[in-house]
């Protein structure tokens, strides 16, 4: 089942929650809708599910033969952030629920339901938990039951709205890897909503970045991360340092260093900003080709070391992340002056900020 989203618009009163959304989610794909809170992710998901109707535009479902098909009640699997399981039912009964409430003529037999529930509990690695009650499970286990319950009805597609939002960081990480593996096994077309960029980048095949009800960029995790189309996307996908400068002969000139910027060669003398991830700021001891900066703080975060620096020329604060080995070799101390080299940057000019 592929999902074609065509020209969707949706307002609440005078507030435009979604404008001109166009997007196709391919058969078997796991797409992440990523954006800050209030950007329209849940609204779009609810429109896909048919729980909300758009003001204009349409959602078209195509089956594997590329025929359009209607989605009937009970063909969508849903998992929400707080998908409360039925407290008075054990895990088996929770997962079986959607099948047991079917009309008699389409309800599977008792034996079939039992087999289905067991295979699903096995899939979510909870096969020994069928007689437990939700209160006897951890948060992560409960979300896995919620997933098994959503899958029990053999939905045409699966919609997940911040399914791990309420869980702590470690469990979130485990579950996100687990969802990826599950998806690789069952290949059900899925749309996954999250405001967590790391989650979106790690789990999905395609990332759709929403900003104030509009699509800002669509691409593979690699594309959106390494070729962010706008300063917004760059910023949203991770920590960033901004280095202000001007374009000169196809380079952005920042203080006493240059950053290649061939795309902007025609914009001689335009104001430019180089966006640089902290691990692309290299700290050097020698002053050749480096921006002088004073070390303010050094935080060791286990595998990496985060160094806060203050540029000598502009007073701007810069963050650099380096590996422990490199840090030890440099033997850095707060108060010292070092030199910064920009290993990799994305340069934006004024026009890029008005997209
Ligand atoms: P997200 O899931 O990205 O956080 P939502 O889709 O829930 O965002 O909401 C997008 C915007 O639309 C928000 O500003 C929200 O307040 C508004 N909104 C959502 N649902 C309604 C509603 N039923 N009535 C009025 N405003 C709504
Ligand atoms: Mg939401």
TrEMBL record:
<dbReference type="InterPro" id="IPR003439">
    <property type="entry name" value="ABC_transporter-like_ATP-bd"/>
</dbReference>
<keyword id="KW-0813">Transport</keyword>
<dbReference type="Pfam" id="PF00005">
    <property type="entry name" value="ABC_tran"/>
</dbReference>
<dbReference type="InterPro" id="IPR050093">
    <property type="entry name" value="ABC_SmlMolc_Importer"/>
</dbReference>
<dbReference type="InterPro" id="IPR027417">
    <property type="entry name" value="P-loop_NTPase"/>
</dbReference>
<dbReference type="Pfam" id="PF12857">
    <property type="entry name" value="TOBE_3"/>
</dbReference>
<dbReference type="GO" id="GO:0016887">
    <property type="term" value="F:ATP hydrolysis activity"/>
</dbReference>
<dbReference type="GO" id="GO:0015419">
    <property type="term" value="F:ABC-type sulfate transporter activity"/>
</dbReference>
<dbReference type="GO" id="GO:0005524">
    <property type="term" value="F:ATP binding"/>
</dbReference>
<keyword id="KW-1003">Cell membrane</keyword>
<keyword id="KW-0764">Sulfate transport</keyword>
<keyword id="KW-0472">Membrane</keyword>
<dbReference type="InterPro" id="IPR012340">
    <property type="entry name" value="NA-bd_OB-fold"/>
</dbReference>
<feature type="domain" description="ABC transporter">
    <location>
        <begin position="3"/>
        <end position="237"/>
    </location>
</feature>
<keyword id="KW-0067">ATP-binding</keyword>
<keyword id="KW-1278">Translocase</keyword>
<dbReference type="Pfam" id="PF17850">
    <property type="entry name" value="CysA_C_terminal"/>
</dbReference>
<dbReference type="GO" id="GO:0043190">
    <property type="term" value="C:ATP-binding cassette (ABC) transporter complex"/>
</dbReference>
<dbReference type="InterPro" id="IPR024765">
    <property type="entry name" value="TOBE-like"/>
</dbReference>
<dbReference type="InterPro" id="IPR008995">
    <property type="entry name" value="Mo/tungstate-bd_C_term_dom"/>
</dbReference>
<dbReference type="InterPro" id="IPR003593">
    <property type="entry name" value="AAA+_ATPase"/>
</dbReference>
<dbReference type="InterPro" id="IPR017871">
    <property type="entry name" value="ABC_transporter-like_CS"/>
</dbReference>
<dbReference type="InterPro" id="IPR005666">
    <property type="entry name" value="Sulph_transpt1"/>
</dbReference>
<dbReference type="InterPro" id="IPR041193">
    <property type="entry name" value="CysA_C"/>
</dbReference>
<protein>
    <submittedName>
        <fullName>Sulfate ABC transporter ATP-binding protein</fullName>
    </submittedName>
</protein>
<keyword id="KW-0547">Nucleotide-binding</keyword>
């Amino acid at each position: 089942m592929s999902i074609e989203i065509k020209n969707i618009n949706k307002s609440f009163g005078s507030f435009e929650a979604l404008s001109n959304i166009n997007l196709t989610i391919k058969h078997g794909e796991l797409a992440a809708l990523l954006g800050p809170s209030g950007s329209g992710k849940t609204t779009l998901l609810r429109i896909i599910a048919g729980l909300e109707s758009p003001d204009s535009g349409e959602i078209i479902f195509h089956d594997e033969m590329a025929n359009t098909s209607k989605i009937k009640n009970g063909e969508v699997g849903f998992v929400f952030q707080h998908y409360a399981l039925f407290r008075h039912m054990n895990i088996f009964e929770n997962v079986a629920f959607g099948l047991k409430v079917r009309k008699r003529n389409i309800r599977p037999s008792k034996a079939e339901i039992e087999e289905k529930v067991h295979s699903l509990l096995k899939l979510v690695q909870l096969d020994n938990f069928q007689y437990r009650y939700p209160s006897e499970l951890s948060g992560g286990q409960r979300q896995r039951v919620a997933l098994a319950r959503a899958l029990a009805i053999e939905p045409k597609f699966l919609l997940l709205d911040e399914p791990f939002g309420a869980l702590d960081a470690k469990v979130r990480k485990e579950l996100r890897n687990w969802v990826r593996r599950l998806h690789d096994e069952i290949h059900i077309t899925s749309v996954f909503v999250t405001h967590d960029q790391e989650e979106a980048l790690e789990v999905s095949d395609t990332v759709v970045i929403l900003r104030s009800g509009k699509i800002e960029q669509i691409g593979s995790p690699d594309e959106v991360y390494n070729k962010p189309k706008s300063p917004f996307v760059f910023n949203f996908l991770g920590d960033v340092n901004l280095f202000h400068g001007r374009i000169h002969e196809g380079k952005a000139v920042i203080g006493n260093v240059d950053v290649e910027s061939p795309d902007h060669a025609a914009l001689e003398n335009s104001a430019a900003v180089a966006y640089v991830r902290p691990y692309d700021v290299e700290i050097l001891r020698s002053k050749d080709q480096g921006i002088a900066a004073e070390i303010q703080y050094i935080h060791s975060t286990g595998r990496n070391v985060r160094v806060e620096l203050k540029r000598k020329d502009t007073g701007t604060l810069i963050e650099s992340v380096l590996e422990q080995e490199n840090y030890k070799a440099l033997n850095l101390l707060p108060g010292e002056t070092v030199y910064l080299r920009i290993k990799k940057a994305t340069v934006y000019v004024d026009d890029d900020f008005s997209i």
